[in-house]
Automatic annotation (TrEMBL):
The ACT domain, residue ranges: 93-174
Organism: Cutibacterium acnes (Propionibacterium acnes)
Organism placement in taxonomy: Bacteria, Bacillati, Actinomycetota, Actinomycetes, Propionibacteriales
Pfam families linked: ACT_6
Name recorded for this polypeptide: Amino acid-binding protein
A GO biological process held by the record: regulation of DNA-templated transcription
CDD domains membership: ACT_GcvR_2 (cd04869)
Superkingdom classification of source: Bacteria
Length: 175
């Protein structure tokens, strides 16, 4: 069996996921994991599928055919892994909210990278602030810290930049 990562992008329309999943199912592919969203009128997603090695090339050919329907699919071969948490790692959820302005995600992720924190999942969005007080930016980051740093160090660094970039940041240990 081979695991493939499919990256899909196209103008949003009804039936995009159905078209994609039909081809995967036709080749007896197993849809393992995915993240998909509509952003600014476009549709984007990533899908991890498991498929027999002998069916990879025909699957790729059929997926390329989705371009005529407005969906561009990029196929990346992956190395199958078993999710596991290394000893000494702490799993965290970082929630951030503040008035929207450029650079928030860069400041937070640069701090995490410098401390050796690995991001597993990142979700962001905008919403109206209560009582017409502008637009709020929200982010939720699922991440892991390794032996390279400590939870206290990460908390301290994020609290310091929270003041600088004027956001509230909460950390929840999910280990």
């Amino acid at each position: 069996m081979t695991q493939l990562l499919l990256t899909v992008v196209g103008a949003d329309r009804s039936g995009l996921v159905s078209d994609l999943s039909e081809i995967v199912a036709h080749y007896d592919g197993n849809w393992l994991d995915s993240r998909m969203a509509r952003l600014a009128g476009a549709f984007a997603g990533i899908v991890l599928v498991d498929i027999k090695s002998s069916k990879v090339e025909p699957l790729k050919a059929d997926l390329a055919g989705l371009e005529v329907k407005g969906l561009r699919v990029t196929v990346t071969d992956t190395i199958p892994t078993t999710p596991q948490q290394d000893e000494g790692e702490a799993a965290l959820v970082v929630h951030l909210v503040g008035h929207d302005h450029p650079g928030i995600i860069h400041k937070v992720t640069a701090t995490m990278a410098r401390l050796g924190v690995t991001i597993d999942d990142l979700s962001t969005g905008l919403r109206e602030a209560p009582m017409g007080d502008g637009i709020l930016f929200e982010a939720q980051v699922q991440c892991r810290i390794t032996n390279a740093t400590t939870l206290d160090d990460l908390r301290s660094e994020l609290e310091a930049i929270a003041t600088e970039i004027m956001v509230d940041i909460d950390l929840v240990d999910r280990s």
